[in-house]
Amino acid sequence: MSRILSGDLPRSRVLAAVLVLIALGLLAAPFLFPGARSLNVAAKVAVFVLLVASYDLLLGYTGIVSFAHTMFFGIGGYGIGIAAARLGPAWGNLALGFLASLALTAAVALVIGLLSLRVRAVFFAMITLAVASFFQILASQLSDFTGGEDGLNFKLPELLQSRLACYYLVLAAAAALFLVLLRIVNSPFGRVLQSIRENEFRCEALGYRTVFYRTAANCLGALFATVAGALYAIWLRYTGPEATLSFAIMIDLLLMVVIGGMGTLYGAVIGATLFVVAQNYLQDLMKLASDAATGIPLLPNLLHPDRWLLWLGVLFVVCVYWFPSGIVGRLRR
Amino acid sequence: MRRHDWLPLALIAVLALAAFAFVPSTPTWLTLTIAGLAMGMMIFMMASGLTLVFGLMDVMNFAHGAFISVGAYAAASVLIQLKGGMQAPSLAENLMAMAPALAAAVAVAGLLGWIFERVVIRPVYGDHLKQILVTMGGLIVVEQLIHVVWGPDMIPLPRPATITGSVLIGDAAIERYRMLAVLVGLAVFAAMWLVLNRTRLGLLIRAGVENTEMVESLGYRVRRLFVGVFVAGSALAGLGGVMWAMYQESVTAGMGMQMMVVIFIVIIIGGMGSVGGCFVGALLVGLMANYIGYLAPKLALGSNILLMVLILLWRPRGLYPASKA
Amino acid sequence: MLDLKSVNTHIGQYHILQGVTFEAKPSQLTMLLGRNGAGKTTCLRTIMGLWRASAGTIRYDGREIQKLETPDIARLDIAYVPENMGIFAGLTVRENLLLAARSGPPDEKRLERIFTLFPAMKKFLDGAAGNLSGGQKQMLAISRAIVEPRKLLLVDEPTKGLAPAIIAAMIEAFRELKRETTLLVVEQNFQFARSLGDAVAVMDSGRIVHTGAMRDLAADEVLQQRLLGLSLEAHQ
C-alpha cells in the first residue's frame, strides 16, 4: 500500500477511514446509489478530486496562486468537445482533440510561467485572472468553433455510450492520475517545490533555479487540469463556458483546496467530496432549516439554500487564518 | 505623480485622434469619445482606491469589488426612499435626492472598509499569499451577505428624471448622464490631486508609497495612515459603484466582482501606487472599449488586455510607477 | 546618551547581533567600524526599531527603547540616515525637507545653515530629488536629519560611493554637526573616521571587539591591522 501511495500515508486513523469510505463509495456508486443524479455526483467528485489535486500542486506545494486553472480545465473540455462535435465521435478524433488540448495547455502554461513567474505573487495572480478572462471571452465569441455561450453537445464512441463504462473510465483515470500526483510531490522535484514555497530566497542561494521549478509546477498542474477537463467533458457529453471556464468554478476550486487542506493532496479528496456533495444535497437540508426559521428576522435569509456559498466562504476564511492545512491538517493533529 | 512626464497624457489625445481617423462621422466620434471618457471616469473612481492601497500598504485587496457593490446597494436603498425627488422634473430636486444617496454609498462602503481592514487584513500584513486567499474569501462572503440583506434579485436603479436621455450638440447625441459622470470624475480626480500634492497628508502618502520604512524613521505612525487610506479607497469604490450602477440602471451583487478584471488592467497600466497613472489608464481603457466596440465589436472585450500588453511592452512597470518594485 | 548592553538580533534564523555592548557618549562622534557583514547596519537598524532586538537592552538618555516602535523612537529626536539614503525620489528637495520637519515649516535660520553647508540644496530646491547626483542625495539625506534640532544622529556609511572632493565637503559638514548633536556613524572610510571620530567601537561577526578613543586607535597601526585587516588598506 505504501508503495502505491508513494510513501505519503494518511497518517491519521480517521483520515484513512474517511478516505477508504470515499474510495469504496466511488467504486460502488452505480450499485450503492442508483439513479442518474447520484451517479452524476460521483463522477463529478472523481473529476474534481483530480482537478483540485492538480491545483494543490500549485497552491499548496509550490505556493503559487493562479486564477487561470479553470482555463486549463476548459481547454481539456473543449479539446474533446470540439473534436467530437466537429469531427465526429470516433476514438481517433477524441485522441486528436485530447492531444491538441494538452499541447495548447503546455504552451500557454509555459508562456504564462516564464513571463509572469518572475514577478511578485500579486501580479501573477492578476495576470492569470486577466488571461483566464480573455480565454472565456474567446470561447464565447468564437461560436462557430466553440458553440459560444451555449457550448457543445456531442456523442461519444460506442464503447463509452454505456454510462457505466463511462463512469468507470473517468474514475479509473482520475484515481490513477491522483496517484501519479502523489508520486510527483513525494519525489525530489516535489521536495524542491516545497522548499521554494517555504523560502524562495534560500532556495536560490542553494543553487536551484526557482523560475524553472515553478514554471514546471505550473505546467504540470495545468496539464493535469486539462486531463480532468477532458474527463469531465466525456462524462457530461457536453462542454461550455459556464461548466468549465467560469470564475465561479475557480472560486469553488479555491474553497475545495483550502478547506480540504493545502499541501496535502488528500485534502483534495476531502475537499472535493465535501463540496460536490454539499452542492447537491446540502441545499435540501438548508431549505428545511430556512423554512423552520420563518418569522425570525434575517435568519431565513442566512439559511436559504442559495446561501450555501456564504457558509463555505466563512469556513474558507476561517481555514486560511487558523487551519492552513484544512480538514486534513486537523485530522492529523 | 511625475511632474514633467506628459507622454502618457498625450496617449489619450493620440488614441482619440486615431479614432477620429477611423470613425467615419464626426458626431459619432464625439458621442463615442464622451462615452469613453465617462466610462473611464467611473472606472477611475472604482480603481483609484485599490492602486493607492497597494502602493502604500503593499496589500492587494481582491475584495475591492465588494465595496463597489455595497456602495451601490446602499445608495439604491436610499434612492428607493427618495423616489419622489428622483422623478421630479427639476434638476435641483434630482440632485438633492442624489446627494444623500451618494453620501450613503461613500459612508457605508467606507465603514465596511474600516471593518475589513481591522478584521480581515490586519492579521495578514506582509503575507501576500494569505492576503490573496483571505480577500477572495471576503469577497465571496460579502457578496453572499448582500444577498442576505437585500435579496437575491437585481434592483433596478433608474437615473434621475432630468439626467436621462441625450442632448444634441450639433449632430451628436450626448447622453446627459455621461456628462454628469465626467464632471463627477473630474471633481474626484481634482480633489485627490489637491490632497496628494498640496497637503501634508498627501505628502505623507506619496512618500509612504515610495518608502514606508523611511517615513516611519522620520517619526510618522504609518499604521494610522494605512487605515485612513484603506477607508478612503473603499469609500471611493462605493462612489464609483453608485455611478456605475446608475449608468447600467441596475444593481446586482456580482457587479463589483465583474469589474475586477478591468480594474486590475487599469491599475497595471497606470502603475501601482499612482493616482495619475490610474486616471490616464482608466480613460485609455474607457476610450478603447468604446472605439473598438464601434469599429470592431468582436474585439471589444479583449481590447483592454491588448492595450495592457502594448503598454507593458513600452513601460514594463506601468505608465507612472510610483511604488517600490 | 546611547547605551547598548548585550543586544542580540535575529533575522529569520540568522543570529546577526550576538551580544553587542557599547556606548555613544553625549556631544561626541562615535564611529562604528568593522568589516563588511560585521553587523554594523543591523546595529543601527536595531537601535532605530526597524529590526527588533531579541535580547539585551538599549538605553537612550537613561530610558529603555528596545521595545518601542520606530516612529516613537524617532520622536525622541533621534534621526536616522540609512545606507541607501532613503530619499523620496518622486518628491522635490523642498518636500523631502518639509516632511522631515515634523512640527511645521522649518525654521528659516536652520534652512540657511543647511544651504550654507550644502549649497546644492538651495539650487535644486524645487527639483525632483530623484534627479540629484549621488553626493547631492547624501547631502539631502543629512539635511533632512538636521532640519529640526535632533539629539542623536545615526548615520550609515555617509561617504559610500562618493568622490574624494565630496568626501572632503562631507567631513567639513560633519565637523559642523559635531558641535550641536551627538552622532553614531558607521563608516568604512578610515580617513573620515580618523578626522572626525572621538570614540570608536569596532565590530566583528556580530560582536564588539574593541572600544576606546579614536586617537588611540589612530596611533596604533598594529591594532588597526588586527581589527580592520585588509579593509584599512582599501580605504585611503
CATH-defined superfamily of the largest domain in chain C: P-loop containing nucleotide triphosphate hydrolases
Total helices of chain C: the number is: 11
Low-confidence stretches of chain C: 230-236
Which regions of chain A are unreliable across 5 or more consecutive residues at pLDDT < 50? Answer: none
Strand order of the largest sheet of chain C: 6-7-8-3-9-10
Total count of strands of chain C: 10
Q: Report the CATH topology name of the largest domain in chain C.
A: Rossmann fold
State mean pLDDT of chain C (0 to 100 scale): 86
Q: What's the CATH topology name of chain A?
A: ABC transporter involved in vitamin B12 uptake, BtuC
Q: Please, what is the average pLDDT of chain A? A: 86
Short description:
The complex is a heterotrimer of chains A (333), B (325) and C (236). Chain B has 325 residues and is mainly α.
Protein architecture, described:
The complex is a heterotrimer of chains A (333), B (325) and C (236). Chain A has helices at 13-27, 29-32, 36-62, 69-87, 91-116, 121-141, 143-146, 163-185, 188-198, 200-205, 210-236, 241-244, 247-260, 266-292, 299-303, 308-322, 326-332, and strands spanning 152-153, 238-239. Chain A is 77% helix and 1% strand. Chain A has one domain (13-332): ABC transporter involved in vitamin B12 uptake, BtuC. In chain A, strands 1-2 form a two-stranded antiparallel ribbon. Chain A is globular. By secondary structure, chain A is mostly helical. The longest helix of chain A has 27 residues, at 36-62. Chain B has a single domain, classed as ABC transporter involved in vitamin B12 uptake, BtuC (Orthogonal Bundle), CATH 1.10.3470. In chain B, 76% of the residues lie in helices and 4% in strands. In chain B, the strands form two sheets. A two-stranded antiparallel ribbon of chain B has the order 1-4. The radius of gyration of chain B is 19 Å and the shape is globular. The two termini of chain B are 16 Å apart. By secondary structure, chain C is of the alpha/beta class. Chain C folds into two domains: 2-77 and 150-234, P-loop containing nucleotide triphosphate hydrolases (Rossmann fold, 3-Layer(aba) Sandwich), CATH 3.40.50.300; 85-149, no CATH class. Chain C is 38% helix and 26% strand. The longest helix of chain C is centred in the last third of the chain and has 15 residues, at 164-178. The two termini of chain C are 31 Å apart.
